[in-house]
Every structure is written in C-alpha cells, then in structure tokens.
Amino acid sequence: MTKPDDTIRVLIPLNVRKKNGRPKILPPADYRPSEDQAQDPHILRAIGRAWGWRRRMEAGEFATIQELAEAVGLAERHVSRQLRLANLAPEALKRLTCGREASAVSLYDLSLMVGEDWSYQLRTTFGLIK
Q1: Considering the domain boundaries, does residue 100 fall inside one?
Q2: Whole-angstrom Cα distance, residue 73 to residue 87?
Q3: CA distance 67 to 119
Q4: Is pTM, for the whole model, over 0.85?
Q5: Looking at the record's lineage, which domain of life comes first (predicted)?
Q6: Which residues share a beta bridge with 16?
Q7: What is the mean pLDDT of each run of 10 residues along the chain (130 residues)?
C-alpha cells in the first residue's frame, strides 16, 4: 500500500483548445520539435498534390489547368502555382521528401524558383547561398 507521502505528481504543461468543435492538445510555447521532424508538412502535402495532379493531367483526365482546378475545387492560379512543384530539381525533391532537411524558403518561394537552374534551386532551398 502506498502512503500519501509516496505519491509522485507529474505536471505536463499542455493547453487544450477546441478546433472545429474537437479538443486539440497544444504543446507548451517553448516547445521545439526534434530535428528528425524537420520536414514541413505543408511542403510535403503540396509536393504530393502536385505530383498527383501532374499524373492525372498526363493520363489525359484533364486537358487544361482550368479543368483540373474546377475538379479539385481550387482557384486556377493556386493549382497552377502548386503544379510547378512537380518540376523541382530531383535532388531538391529527394532532400525535401526523403531527407530530414528543412527548407529555408517558403512554399510560395519554392514554387516561384522552379524555372531556375537546378543547382540554384538546391542552394536557395536549403540556404546554401553565400
């Protein structure tokens, strides 16, 4: 039998907020994710969408970006910008999706640099410009 003096209390500073009617547990403000979680989920999701859309267009499911945008329920401009991510440099794609390196640029900037040289994309994406 344990005595009241033997009790150990563990306090975990978490906040609970409702999001979309469901409780969501938020980490403490000073929480830093570990380095193995350096991938940005927004960038991963956008790259996955871009490749999926590209495959659907190459399969002939959609003839234009406008048709694709209407089918997925997004603005044509947004779909066009996101679709560019399927043309990123292969090494940049590999490091963004399979590696544990965080991008030094935003998703918007990443979509704008697609037309640049592959070595420039690598240097800019991972902050190697000196």
Answers
A1: yes
A2: 22
A3: 33
A4: no
A5: Bacteria
A6: 25
A7: 68 77 76 61 89 93 94 94 91 81 81 87 75
